[in-house]
Amino acid sequence: MTKPSLPHEAPQPADLLVRLLKLGSFISGPMRDGVCEPAEINATELRVIMALAGEGDLAGHDLVEITGLPPMNVSRAIASLRDRGWIEDIVDPDNRRRRPVRLSASGHDAYARTLPYVDVVAEAVIGTLTLRQRQQLAALTDKVNAQLITWIRDHHVGVKLHTPD
User: Fold this and answer.
1) Is residue 112 part of a domain?
2) Digit-coded pLDDT (tens) for 55-100
3) Is 164 a member of any domain?
4) Which of 35, 71, 77, 154 has its CA 20 to 30 A from that of 45?
5) What distance lies between CA 13 and its chain's CA centroid?
């Protein structure tokens, strides 16, 4: 790891990566306390329904790649969400062995019920940023996400990732 950069120096990529990892770790607390608990859903289930709401039909291995969760955790979340009636199995006409799932109508309703809680956490975490800072953050996160998708595609052949429109 490189030494932290001085205020007048551009941060090194490794320093920025560590900051992103720290951000990812820190955000889990507010998401758990501010979204999962009031919505009565665990963090893994939330990540799965958010991925399905954003990406559409996905198989378990797709969800593993998109969420970065271990396969067993994704499998358990799928089973739990299926038991709740929030997701349903569908058939992939191009690949009968692939087992995609999608949000059911009640799953879409459950996802919609989480959004006010997400808004509260978002306001607490990002609310003090100016419009320009929000625009910059959006552009930078889109760029980093695109780079991550490229890296994943290059290192995990056969993974179906949806890119933002």
Assistant:
1) yes
2) 999 999 889 888 888 899 999 999 999 999 999 999 878 877 888 9
3) no
4) 154
5) 22
- Please list, in sequence order, all residues whose beta carbon lies within 8 angstroms of the beta carbon of residue 39, skipping any fewer than 6 positions away: 46, 110, 113, 114, 117
Q: Which residues of 79-107 are buried (b: 16+ CB within 10 A; e: fewer)?
A: ebbeeeebbbeeeeeeeeebebbbbbeeb
Task: Identify the three-state secondary structure at position 59.
Answer: strand
Q: How many domains does the structure of the chain reveal?
A: 1
Q: 3-state class of 58 per DSSP? A: strand
pTM: 0.78
Range of the domain at 80: 13-155
Give the position of tokens 């998109």.
66
Is 118 inside any structural domain?
Answer: yes
